Amino acid sequence: MSAVAAISRLGRSTIDSVSGLGAFAKFVLNLFVLLPKSLLRPRLIIDQIHFIGNYSLVIIVVSGLFVGFVLGLQGYYTLNRYGAEQALGLLVALSLVRELGPVVSALLFAGRAGTSLTAEIGLMKAGEQLAAMEMMAVDPKSRILAPRWVAGLISMPILAALFSAVGIIGGYVVGVLLIGVDSGAFWSQMQDGVDVMNDVANGVIKSIVFGLAVNAIALYQGYTCQPTPEGVSRATTRTVVIASLTILGLDFVLTALMFSV
Prior knowledge:
This protein has nine helices and no strands. By secondary structure, the protein is an all-alpha fold. It has one domain (42-255). The chain is globular. The termini are far apart.
């Protein structure tokens, strides 16, 4: 391959990437514009919360429980070296509320609900249902996409909170009931060390941002995919990959902004 051809290919891929980012930004902006209108249809949002949030509940709760088990076990062995095993509750709570709760639940949410949304919208496009709605003067973004986006935005913080709560219970079971850490010290250290504004609120903000990003990516991939079985399959795969990388990148940025001071 000649140098001119390589430079041409690099330029073409760069232009395509920038164009894709611009189209995605325009898509997200359109969802924000449609937000007030979608709130006037609460029944659609409630149905999608049930579809997105309720069906993701089992994997979130079970994963949170086992993450709490592991944190309780590993945290105890680490703290025991320094004679600080009484701070196990604080370690488990801060690890879950600040970091693992929002991030792991968002990754699971992307794998469960994000792929489901992409496949659903992609199949609607392949079956020409979206085109039929446009023929009937019904905006599919307002009727189909916006309620799902709002529902995901509401579901994600709730699922992250449940993940953290169940994880703390899992850490309590391992640390207190199985290993024998003092129960009073476990809870008192947690209550003294966890700050609502600096820890809990930052975790909630992270989960909201992750929910916004994951749902927007899933809906965009489904709405712009090729209307074929292969196109829907590729869009579903792209949703998982792009959403996972976006979550990890946003987590670094948000952590740097929140805890740099």
